[in-house]
């Protein structure tokens, strides 16, 4: 009878094949033409009391068909006995579960595990032998942190690598590469789901250039991602101009998912890598305070590392971030290139809003250094120019444009009385000049370069004048000194003049306050005021005869007067018909009617209404003799 050895770690023979098959409740298809024996180990299945242990294949050849289901309640070790080349070929579904003893996989001593089936691994994967992925899927479905490792630096190349499980804590979500790299082959898919693939300082290589070779859960706040310590990374092969996702994140410190996307410029073969540095870049030697002059700052929260390890193609670089927690950014910067030891502005990017905002730089060419970071451009300089002011003057206005929030500074001896923070300030100035400086700022702490100009202080002229009079007309003479170039006269009766030496007729007696404001070319002014007493003799002289014959002598009836403010005259003929009238302080009747017809010789009647500036009534009536003497 064919025996199946059922061994504990103490190499105890436990049962015969029929007992094992009845306990396992599965069917194994044995390739007896290539096998000398089959060794299986199952513990704790059904009602049979069996110690929890490891399914230990000690050099046998094992084959399971596509419909086979193998449940190993414990660990699985594929081992090569001396002089053997054991192959365990799984084409069905094999579940390696934890039931007291960790449900881990150990490949040791020259053994081979291969096949197209699915292997569910609840705990760790230690590969010190050969794993031939074929078309298989390895699903790390444990609820505790799982490790993919090797004590001989053997890199496992998976076909489909799936991360699953229900572990809820940060540590229990991790599937960790420990001490070794790992690969997904040229036809395989990395399915991250909502787990964390932690590479530590190792690299997870995705050799399949298909865009869909990496998938992850993308529910906002519950994404699956690849995390890497400094020196580790996620590597992807590309062969198209499609968008390749690098779902990078980290649970170290603040939990962050900050995806990176690359779009190669051609369908040629390239390999790109991506990593999220979930700490200030300064910690890793990339000082966030060292920036070029076109930027105001870069983020201190995190950065990305991007490299092109194979190929020559340019690529679009698209960095994602959370606007709420990370702040607003309008650019990208690259460390050490073209200028060494600082962050260099990468130029114009496209900013797109969403659950995660992203900044995209098109057709990037320089992959010489790996660190990339979100940046904000320095604000444009405000436009600002100074005007000279007057010594000890108030209310001087200065205005800038081209910005939003302005910070002003003025020299000692001045006071900003209003407008600080706006584009226009009002300044009271002292006796000396000096610079005014303005900077544009915004709500996220960015700023422009300071813009300054020098304000010169000008001394105003000294205003002075003199006056003379002839009757009600006063003549004013400017006596200002100190370079006056403008004059403004206020005559006190509502009238004004900008002439240097004006004359002004007054229509009333009484005191009038006359002010002169003298100004220079810089707009500085000085004022002086004097009160004059307008006092002119009041009279009215009414002739009773005139001879309008154009002989140059007494050709008009002229009413001579002074000091009148109201004046009206009406003239009637002998039949009582009004033939002429006027309203003016200066009356001259030339002997014609209002229609321009000559009046005949004779006597005419006038009515005069007149009131002086002192309100004396000079109204009267009388007769006029018109004699032409032709």
Descriptive notes:
The chain has 630 residues and is mainly beta. Among the domains are: 383-455, Immunoglobulin-like (Sandwich); 465-534, Immunoglobulin-like, CATH 2.60.40; 539-626, Sandwich (Immunoglobulin-like). Helix content is 2%, strand content 44%. The strands form 12 sheets. Strands 1, 3, 5, 6, 8, 9, 11, 12, 14, 15, 17, 18, 20 and 21 form a 14-stranded parallel sheet that branches. Strand 40 (415-418) and strand 41 form a beta hairpin. Residues 1-52 have low confidence and may be disordered.
Structural topology:
Layout: H1 17-24, E1 53-58, E2 62-64, E3 69-79, E4 87-90, E5 93-97, E6 105-107, E7 112-114, E8 118-121, E9 125-127, E10 130-131, E11 137-140, E12 146-149, E13 156-158, E14 160-163, E15 174-178, E16 182-184, E17 190-191, E18 196-198, E19 203-206, E20 214-215, E21 225-227, E22 233-238, E23 244-246, E24 249-250, E25 256-257, E26 260-264, E27 270-277, E28 295-298, E29 303-310, E30 315-321, H2 323-326, E31 331-335, E32 343-345, E33 350-352, E34 357-364, E35 371-377, E36 383-384, E37 389-390, E38 396-401, E39 405-409, E40 415-418, E41 424-428, E42 434-441, E43 451-455, E44 457-458, E45 465-470, E46 473-478, E47 486-490, E48 496-497, E49 503-505, E50 510-519, E51 525-534, E52 539-541, E53 545-546, E54 557-562, E55 564-572, E56 578-582, E57 587-589, E58 602-612, E59 620-626
Parallel strand pairs: 1-3, 2-4, 3-5, 3-6, 4-7, 5-8, 6-9, 7-10, 8-11, 9-12, 11-14, 12-15, 13-16, 14-17, 15-18, 16-19, 17-20, 18-21, 19-22, 37-44, 53-59
Antiparallel strand pairs: 22-27, 23-26, 24-25, 26-30, 27-29, 28-35, 29-35, 30-34, 31-32, 31-35, 33-34, 36-38, 38-41, 39-42, 40-41, 42-43, 45-46, 46-49, 47-48, 47-50, 50-51, 52-54, 54-57, 55-56, 55-58, 58-59
